């Protein structure tokens, strides 16, 4: 998506990468390659991370039960599992880190987030409820499917 944004000359001031601490090596490889491209284009790259390491939240963090009366103990440790279909690990940590970044560096600016949801994933689009932040879905606007986006990314990773 970022490659096409650059190609289309859309406004892009900063790219934010959120590191859970447990990404696949290919994600880090892609990040490193993208950082070089962004630097060549004089676009700011920021890397954010969660307050806690992914494994701490998954296995160690004390969690209060919503209904402790029905449990033998009032807390359990770690998130255990992601909660089922449609729920992703680390989303709340990612979103709060990004919002804190916006507040710190862009306190009075209108932000446009480019969200990488493809045209065949429309069910994942969300109505925006954050003041000062608007969302754009360029892959949807361009009619790009998840498969086509993946093919183009693989080509870029292999061919440069």
UniProtKB/TrEMBL annotation:
It comes from the Bacteria. This is Phosphoadenosine phosphosulphate reductase domain-containing protein. It comes from Acetatifactor muris.
